[in-house]
Amino acid sequence: MRKKSIIILISLMALALWLSSCSYGSGVTLPWRDVELTDVRTEETFKISKFAGKPVVIEMMTTTCHICEDQMKQIAKAYEQAGEDVVFISLNLDSSVSDEALREHMESMGFDWFAATLSRDQVRSLEAEFGPHIVNLAASPVIILDPWQDAHMLKPGMKTADQLLDQIAEIGGL
User: What is the pLDDT of residue 172?
Assistant: First the structure.
């Protein structure tokens, strides 16, 4: 019986070691904060982690989501009030949308903060940390990173500009 337990334990340890070495489909192993993204407005690359020291508001969206547009209008109000003390980023979850289409969407709505499209692997990385509700656009998913890059997932539902600013202040950002 003891020998069987040792074999099972060794097998489980080998499985855990193998799983820890696995990466997402295309080999992305970096945490989502460290993945290089392209801002569709400027075509410059950036990493979310480069904004350490400032709060970062990250909103999940697609160009065809009307709930997302309503949330982005609230984010625009918060963006105007927060100024350069806070970084705002919209992350498009629909990898079939071109950067050009995303840029045009952002411009047509008057939104001029960072915007980038995530690959499927990058979306999976977010899901691994926050669960499947991070891609439930009906819940208006928003994450706020505090200045130390700790992530705070906001409650589901529409967030007003005042609620966003209160959340930023609460985590030590304003």
Answer: 79
Q: What is the 3-state secondary structure (H, E, C) of the chain?
A: CHHHHHHHHHHHHHHHHHHHHCCCCCCCCCCHHHCCEECCCCCCEECHHHHCCCCEEEEEECCCCHHHHHHHHHHHHHHHHHHHHCEEEEEECCCCCCHHHHHHHHHHHCCCCEEEECCHHHHHHHHHHHCHHHHCHHHCCEEEECCCCCEEECCCCCCCHHHHHHHHHHCCCC
Query: In this structure, is residue 51 part of a structural domain?
Result: yes
Number of structural domains found in the chain? 1
CATH of the domain at 54: 3.40.30.10
**Residue 15 in domain:** no
90 lies in which domain range? 26-170
This prediction has a pTM of 0.80
Over residues 110-164, the pLDDT tens digits come to 999 999 999 988 899 899 999 999 999 999 999 999 999 999 999 999 999 999 9
pLDDT in tens, 41-61: 999 999 999 999 999 999 999
